[in-house]
From TrEMBL:
GO terms for biological process: proteolysis. PANTHER family: PEPTIDASE S8, SERIN ENDOPEPTIDASE. Pfam families: fn3_5, PA, Peptidase_S8. This is Peptidase S8/S53 domain-containing protein. The lineage of its organism: Eukaryota, Fungi, Fungi incertae sedis, Mucoromycota, Mortierellomycotina. The keyword Hydrolase applies. GO terms for cellular component: extracellular space; membrane. It comes from the Eukaryota. Residues 1-19 form the signal peptide. It comes from Entomortierella parvispora. Residues 375-452 form the PA domain.
Amino acid sequence: MKITSTILSILAAASLVSAGKFHQVKHGKTNIVPNAYIIEYHEGVSHADAHNGLKTHAVDYKVRNEYKIFNGASITVNSEHDGHALASVPGVKNVWHVSIYDMPKTQKVTAKKTDPLAISDHHMTGVDVLHEKYKLTGKGVKVGVIDTGIDYNHPAFAAKGATKGCFARNGKNCRIAHGWDFVGDAYNGGNTPKPDGDPMDCAGHGSHVAGIIGGNALDIKVNPKPPQPFVGVAPEVTYGAYRIFGCTGGSGEDVILAAMELAFNDGMDIINMSLGGGSAYKDNPTAALAETLISKGMALSGAAGNDGANGVWMVSDTGLGDHATSVASFDNMYDYYNYITYGGVKMPFSVSEAYAKPITLPNTLPIVPLLDAKGSLLDGCDPAQYTAVGSLKNKIVVALGDVTNCKSGGRGANAQNAGATGMIVVSDDAGIDSLGGVAGLPMASISNADGMTMLATYAKNKKNAVSWSKDQGPFIIDNSGAPSDFSSFGLDGDLRSKPDIGAPGGNILSTYPLALGGYTLMSGTSMATPYITGSHALYMQAKHAKPHGDVIRQALKNTATISKNYKSKTFTSAAKQGAGLVNVLNAVLAEASITPDHIDLLDSVNFHKTVQITLKNTGKHTETFTLKNVPADGLISYQGNNTWPLANPVIEATSASVTFSQEKVKIPGGKSAKITLHFKEPKTNTLFPMYSGFVVATPKTKGAVAVHVPYTGVKGDIRKVPIMDTDHGFPQAALANATSIIDDAPANPYTYDLVKNFPAFISRFGSHTPNAEVRVLDSKDKLVGYISFGESGRQPLADENGNPVLNEYIWNGQVQTTQNATAPAITVPAGTYTVVFAQQHKFSKGEYPKDFEIFKMKPVTIA
Ligand SMILES: *[C@@H]1O[C@H](CO)[C@@H](O)[C@H](O)[C@H]1NC(C)=O
Ligand SMILES: *[C@@H]1O[C@H](CO)[C@@H](O)[C@H](O)[C@H]1NC(C)=O
Ligand SMILES: *[C@@H]1O[C@H](CO)[C@@H](O)[C@H](O)[C@H]1NC(C)=O
Ligand SMILES: *[C@@H]1O[C@H](CO)[C@@H](O)[C@H](O)[C@H]1NC(C)=O
């Protein structure tokens, strides 16, 4: 009966203050800390009042973190059911699970001895000129690195005149002058953090990003020396190192909030954070706190994510706030390859997977290309092609890597049977193909262009030998300077234009903890984000002020370089590159701006056909600007009735048309003009095409920097985008014990005793939903209650091993009788139940059932 009185007290109190909102987990890939919650209080509710409320509510809880700027706390309760009731506690505004963010995934390559050409990323962005001509270094700017810590002893972080870096809180002679370890080495996201204050990095990621922001390895004489000199974007910034990850594993979102608050209180001008997860929605505590900090004058950049192989709608949530910067990755100009030299030309190659070791053939062996009567290269699929050229002993046979008739395994076997000592495969399309090959035969794949050069050289002198390099060298690769394949596609769940901007993130050489080798190359949007952070620092120093984060984002976006993919004649979608590749030099020199810095046209139902922009002349003199529309690639994001966005959206030459109220506009110095744009949707009839482009204002003055803003939209009614993966039979019921799934597709009819056998629900979502519900109906289809399934994020198409990523939920037979858990859960009596999955359509009001995609599962019998 004690319970009843608790309920009464909650209900009485709840009538005074409206109940809070319990948020579902919207990260398709993240885990949660069991029974841990982040709660936000209503404005004006003090921590003491809130704790009184929690206590009267009889929730037994422990405080994990108390926050100050974010009005709330994180707590642990005894059971999941206690947590779900939190939303009804007076004074509570929002309740979230504590999500565990993965340590950002990067591709790591060991840095090889290279030459100075490889410091190419600053040429792409104007940062080299800012360093050399304008002497900008980010001096005086404070940058918070919320990450795995920083190896502060690294010589690349040494203060001027010192040979070694150091960390001292508020220390004048250390570049790492702020920071804290919130977690300890053994923390993995799920266990209890053991803060120790020392932000030394044992994982490596934070040291790498810190080096990109402002490491200086130009003149290092101590060991280990960098494989080549390099410098970060802003080599005199002061760092705060806020360590939120242990040596491995993830980090709880409540730790991240604490780190963000401390970074702000330490006076950081900019924080840079990149956290995994493909939420695509901004209603999470991190994004909310980020917005608050930005409104107080701090800037924040977050990684767009490395989910480029998962189709559209996959941007990570850290950069999704209205004022935060979501950063896409561009490939560096150069990549490192072993190479052959033939006729004096260096040709990068990639070795076959089956051979998988360096090729150490003598440098005296000639080539024998397999040619047809016209001199064209044959595919090497027919053994007769080999017998036609005579003995291949001590020779390198050359064939075309066309996969129509055979793969590299078949081609390699033929070469081996014919007695060849090695094989060179000429790629038949862009890039250097990867080869499966055969064990025992050295097989190397080269680009098509190099293959053609090789044949031309061979035609002149058949005796030329191939030599094989021992080292790697830098080569301009096919996608050099263009958006990285791995970089995630937007838009966000609300169809806003994200990512915002791009920066070099593919193949970036930077610092690494000394204990782990000191330097390495890494790739990821994690590498692009700190580049933007460093760019902020240079911009702030150039303007001798602390402009609002919004102003800097706008300046960087307005002046970025709009880019094309490799060999493409058209511009890459703004849903992939944002406003383009950052050009900090142009941002500093520009004498114009366009507000807002992105145009969200939304879908056909909510289409913004008329949009006003403000073009400002920030220079001293009158300037005439010409406005034009520069279309970018359209993306076909769905095919047929498939629930899943396409892994690789198909590029379509389709775009909106734009007319301007004025195509030419003369603006006096310091003044602005309002220009009205009229948009028309593209004519295409493909399914939910995502189209985009750029509105560009070009000044008449020769050499003056043009400014632009990206626009993005989706044609069609976004409410009709399918959400649940019914194509592949999900959601489906499975058989579980209390902790694990035992049979993922048990025979019909399902009977569960809730002692040994529990029903489990396996689901998979191909699109985000603003709200998901799981209802339980009895045998007469009457609503019994709701299951707090708590998951509404989109899953990636597959994990790293190619397996589908699934949501699995083991049901203990309990339901909440109201949707927002204002009463304790009940266990359903024995009987037959139908479980209904309901996902709210994007951009709908959320009326049930009209605005939901609904899937009724086969009945479940509870014995
Ligand atoms: C809680 O649920 C009740 C009944 O389902 C509903 O009337 C009320 O509006 C909900 N409150 C909130 C804050 O969602
Ligand atoms: C900076 O952002 C990158 C990418 O998001 C992230 O991996 C890294 O942890 C962040 N480091 C800083 C500077 O906070
Ligand atoms: C989707 O399926 C419906 C019904 O089967 C069919 O009428 C429609 O043409 C399909 N749409 C596409 C784009 O394939
Ligand atoms: C549930 O099944 C898993 C896998 O078969 C097993 O490891 C675990 O011990 C079982 N748990 C219980 C509570 O029986």
